[in-house]
């Protein structure tokens, strides 16, 4: 049996802006994407710790070390600047792969700079 497991997580980032007039997605600092192993345009699950919403979207890269976390399009209805998010991706793994699997987790400071990687 294959199982879906956490593959990458950006823990407790702060939303820097919300832009309703956009096609959709979430713009994320490229250094955070790389640290968590998230690819540009990969599907992400966004959990907003301020309002409890959980939405699916896709990641768009922002300039490296910019600190940008922007909710775009419909996602902008689920959060605002200052909100705290957890951004996650998942992969499908075989039992053999699960034995060796460890998700990539990035922890950030108040300015969305990486302070720790797991």
Describe the structure.
The chain is mostly beta strands and 118 residues long. It has one domain (3-117): Barwin-like endoglucanases (Beta Barrel). 11% of the residues lie in helices and 49% in strands. The protein has two helices and nine strands; from the N terminus they run E-E-E-H-E-E-E-E-H-E-E. It has a nine-stranded mixed β-sheet with strand order 2-6-3-5-4-7-1-8-9. It is globular. It starts with a strand and ends with a strand. The relative contact order is 0.35.
What is the topology?
Blueprint: E1 3-14, E2 17-19, E3 25-29, H1 30-36, E4 43-48, E5 54-62, E6 69-72, E7 84-93, H2 95-100, E8 104-108, E9 114-117
Parallel strand pairs: 1-8, 2-6, 3-5
Antiparallel strand pairs: 1-7, 3-6, 4-5, 4-7, 8-9
Fraction of helical residues: 10-25%
From the 3D structure, determine the CATH topology: Barwin-like endoglucanases
The strand count comes to 9
The CATH first-level class comes to Mainly Beta
Query: In what range is the share of β-strand residues?
Result: over 45%
Low-pLDDT regions: none
Q: What shape does the CA trace take?
A: globular
Q: Spell the H/E element sequence.
A: EEEHEEEEHEE
> What is the terminal separation in angstroms?
27 Å
Please give the largest β-sheet: 9 strands, mixed
């Amino acid at each position: 049996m294959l199982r879906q497991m956490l593959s990458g997580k950006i823990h407790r980032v702060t939303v820097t802006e919300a832009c309703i007039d956009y096609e959709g997605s979430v713009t994320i600092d490229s250094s955070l994407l790389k640290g968590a192993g998230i690819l540009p345009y990969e599907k992400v699950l966004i959990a907003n710790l301020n309002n409890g919403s959980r939405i699916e979207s896709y990641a768009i890269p922002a300039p490296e070390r910019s600190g940008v976390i922007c909710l775009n399009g419909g996602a902008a209805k689920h959060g605002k600047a200052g909100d705290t998010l957890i951004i996650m991706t998942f992969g499908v793994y075989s039992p053999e792969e699960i034995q060796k699997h460890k998700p990539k987790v990035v922890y950030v400071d108040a300015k969305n700079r990486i302070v720790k990687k797991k």
